[in-house]
Amino acid sequence: MDFLVQAIIPYVLLYKYSALFVITFLASLIVPIPAGTLLVASSAFASQGYFNMTTLIITVIIANIIGDNLSYWLARLYGRVILSKVAFFRKILASKNFILVERSIDRHTGPFIIISRFEVISNLTANIICGMSKVSYKKFVTYEIIGTFANVSFYATLGYFFGDSWQAVNKLIGDFSIIFFLLIILGVSLFWKKITVRLSR
Fold first, then answer.
1. CB contact set of 95 (below 8 Å; sequence gap of 6+)
2. Which end of the chain has fewer surrounding CB within 10 Å, N or C?
3. Other residues' Cβ atoms within 10 Å of the Cβ of residue 167
4. What does the alpha-carbon distance between residue 80 and residue 70 come to, in Å, rounded to a whole number?
5. Average pLDDT per block of 10 residues along the chain, 201 residues long
6. What Å distances lie between residue 162 and 45, 165, 176, CA to CA?
7. Could you tell me if 136 and 76 are in contact, meaning their C-beta atoms sit under 8 angstroms apart?
């Protein structure tokens, strides 16, 4: 997604905090924009005095929290209604495996939400699944805030301290995210039977 970041950065440099807020909000709501990568780049510019680091962090945190919460509530109120109109998704929602996944998420909500904050696709997926599974809002928002603070602190620190090398850092993060995502898919695929047996107990 490097090309997407390169296309967005000029708008961030031009409109500063307003652009950061809108882009981060959309990334946490429904659009798979690499907000973490953008935060690293923006923090690198902050190290050069282009942004105020405190204002930047507050802007991104607020945008993330609002976007995540809206995504959760949209999924909770309308997710099942909309997806049930499509035969493929209707079968998934009614399947035993999906019920087991919901049960697992309810048991391990904290790690699930916090870890998901560090990758844009997993972040969007977690918001939607938590909303449709009707994970309690209190539980969701508590871990969402913790995860958001951890996520923003991590990416902002990397960008600020690595400064001129932010592009190399972003490439490393992107490669790691892809590998991490593939490992999760591989792990679930290999051990799905064992996972479902354990959850059904």
1. none
2. C
3. 16
4. 16
5. 75 91 92 84 88 94 96 91 80 75 79 85 87 89 94 89 65 58 56 51 56
6. 10, 5, 17
7. no
Nearest to 5, CA basis, from 169, 191, 192, 183: 169
**3-state class (DSSP) for residue 108:** coil
Burial class (CB in 10 A: 0-12, 13-18, 19+), 39: buried
Q: State in Å, rounded, how far the first CA of the chain is from the last one.
A: 41
- Closest of 72, 68, 40, 70 to residue 56, by C-alpha: 40
C-alpha pair distances (Å), 189 with each of 87, 102, 180, 196: 24, 17, 14, 11
| Rounded Cα gap, residues 93 and 111, in angstroms | 23
